[in-house]
Amino acid sequence: MILTIADKKLLLLLARNAIVNRIAPGNPQLSIIPDPTDSVQLNCGAFVSLYVEGDLRGCIGTFSEEDTLYKNVKKMAESAATSDSRFSPVQFCELEKMKIEISVLSPRERIYDKGDIILGKHGIYMEKGLNRGTLLPQVAISQNWSVDEFLGNCAKYKAGIGWDGWQTADLYLYEAFVFDSVQTISDC
Questions:
Q1: CA 20 to 30 Å from 39, out of 72, 122, 152, 178?
Q2: Which domain holds residue 171?
Q3: 44 close to 21: Cβ distance less than 8 angstroms
Q4: What phi, psi does 68 have (nearest 5°)?
């Protein structure tokens, strides 16, 4: 998927406005939102990660391709700010310091060999029975993990199937087109 700078700015604006409207109802929107372009009306999954002063404050996403990208971004931004069980909800006073990162997801592809994983390029999604878990591609790089550490952490902490549970799980790769509010503004 190719997103223009204008598309990225639109998605970031939609995400920020969804957060503001949820945590401070009645507050005026931050700016007027243009009509969605064809690119952001494609059906694909997305994750929204929120950072305040460099610390993660929420990250929620969906692989669902039932809704358009811009609708998924709005829903995931609101959820990341208010419903990530690892964090208290984002406060209005944090908005000024908040960085929004959006990961637009490619469709998942089933793999049978961990050698297919390219760290930094591929995210991992695994499922075993009713247990599921994922880690975005950028996580392995930020944590300086090996492929085995990437799989083990996803299996244990995301899917809840134990460190070696990935070995008997169904594994899928996906790519994420990642951009954030800081780098997008500097792209102007």
A1: 122
A2: 109-175
A3: no
A4: -75, 160
